[in-house]
Design a protein that fits this description.
alpha/beta, seven-stranded mixed sheet, three-stranded antiparallel sheet, 10 helices, 12 strands
Amino acid sequence: MDSLEQPLGGSEFAPGRTYLNTSACGLLPRRTVEAVTRLAEETADGRSDGAGSFDVVDEARAAYARLAGVAPGRVAVGSAVAVHCGMIAQSMPSGAEILFPEGDFSSLITPFTVRGDLKTRFVPLERLAESVRPETALVALSAVQSADGRTADLAAVRAAAAAHGARTLLDATQSAGWLPLAAGEWDYTVAGAYKYLLCPRGASFLTVTEEAQDSLLPIHAGWVTGEEMWVNSYGPVRELARSARRFDEPAAFLSYHGALRSLELLEEIGIERIEAHDKGLAARFRAGLVSAGREPVMDDSTVVAVPGLGHRADALRDAGVLLSARAGNLRASFHLYNTAADVDRALDVLAG
């Protein structure tokens, strides 16, 4: 087992402060920064093929597919979770019931509530599975709650949805990159890649099963979504891609040239190894909080929240320790570049 005394990733990271805020934004690996910089400089000089490579985008798609446990043809690329969810929301029939956990992230929820003609229902996270009913059309949830790091009973939710014929939508933004993802077990998954996947902002992934693809409307289809991409520049697209690429947004090349390098790094290290490292650090932090008389949310998650302590985030920042305040909670989030020394530094500042 790896020691918590050493970061994973070697010289790829060199944070200037104690950074425990990956749930807000992950640190970019050195190789990713180099890839983005190279493309920006080439674009400034005048590239013969425009501002980036579709081949690189497809390599990033394939790398994410390997991490998510699906074929590349089941992955669509985009810019943000809200855009992916908006497409799913606009594809739902009028009057459909969408079931959410209370307090889940707004980018997952709001694309459905703005429709106005959908029935949205909210229940406590721990009651989500038992709350699925025959009229539920879609169960949508985050694998890890942004506000407090709680993890959902994913197997129970999938079983309940299957029993009632409901589709499922999993937001893996707070889990992909440290928690193994079996995207094929869900009708849809979405993941903003700028957190634990360590990608530049502007890269986001959607997975869609073949069965669910049939009922999903590609509302932002364009020339890049054609089965033969380079023959669709003028007039209507003749044939949409037969794969999930039909749901692509035009890729932000700078983001995806960087994303490929970040995803390659995660593959090199291994998600299981990262999971053990991150959870070990989180467990050390929880134990230290309990010893100090604090009451963190107890969960087997790399995200640790301390209710009622959000007001300490500014003081921690002034001391060089970056965390977040979310919904009144002080939220620490650990990733591969963190070590036991980072945990102890945060505990020392909190004790001061």
